[in-house]
Design goal:
The chain has ten helices and four strands. The protein is an alpha+beta fold. It has two domains: about 80 residues, 3-Layer(aba) Sandwich (Glutaredoxin), CATH 3.40.30.10; about 110 residues, Glutathione S-transferase Yfyf (Class Pi), Chain A, domain 2 (Up-down Bundle). InterPro entries: Glutathione-S-Trfase_C-like, Glutathione-S-Trfase_C_sf, Glutathione_S-Trfase, Glutathione_S-Trfase_N, GST_C, Thioredoxin-like_sf. This is Glutathione S-transferase domain protein.
Length: about 210
């Protein structure tokens, strides 16, 4: 059975938990791994030398990096609806996962860490927060334009692991106290995703 390590407040841990639920793979969740002390322990660093969550332990080894784990889960379960087999369709899904992990994550970091996490390293720099907010909104407007074209989900009618990563990012954006542009396509998309039973478990209104 799969074992998933990491606190539920981590957006990256929720990605993996949600993917496992969608793929209907049995797993054990160990949420106690999350504070700085546990992640820097010798035992944990043997699992992930980066000292970050999540970690997936499977019968043949260990994985870290949340998007990699999501792809592994979909492939292991042979859920080609979540991650297609054809190189072209698979790449279309993976490009949005990579965009979320690089472009979108980089944009929100300062604003989220200051306004939600209340991290002292960011709170003291209002110009940095404003710049981060502007960049975050800009990325979300890019996503808005894509959703206007594509329909129900990011690649059309089929829900994939890319939608897990994007829906969690939208959820974080909506729960962060910033001024946001009008995004009707994102709103419709988010409500569509919320109809999925697994989504309700990980799009908690109390956890951005």
């Amino acid at each position: 059975m799969l074992k998933i390590l990491g606190r539920t407040t981590s957006i990256n841990v929720r990605k993996v938990l949600w993917a496992a639920q969608e793929a209907q793979l049995p797993f054990i969740h160990e949420p106690q791994w999350g504070d700085e002390l546990s992640l820097k322990s010798a035992d944990y660093l043997k699992l992930n030398p980066n000292g970050l969550v999540p970690v997936l332990i499977h019968e043949n080894g260990i994985l870290w990096e949340s998007n990699t784990i999501c792809r592994y889960i979909a492939t292991k379960a042979q859920r080609f609806d979540l991650l297609p087999e054809s190189p072209e369709e698979k790449a279309d899904v993976e490009k949005w996962m990579d965009w979320q992990a690089t472009e979108l994550n980089s944009a929100w970091r300062a604003a989220f860490m200051a306004l939600v996490r209340k991290n002292d390293s960011f709170i003291q720099y209002p110009e940095l927060i404003a710049k981060s907010t502007d960049e975050w909104n800009s990325k979300m407007l890019l996503l808005e334009a894509e959703l206007e074209k594509n329909g129900n989900f990011i690649n059309g009618k089929q829900f994939t692991v890319a939608d897990i990563t994007l829906a969690l990012s939208i959820h974080r954006w909506l729960l962060t106290p910033i001024i946001r542009p009008n995004t009707p396509a994102i709103s419709q998309y988010y409500q569509q995703v919320l109809t999925r039973p697994a989504a309700k478990l990980y799009l908690d209104p109390n956890i951005p």
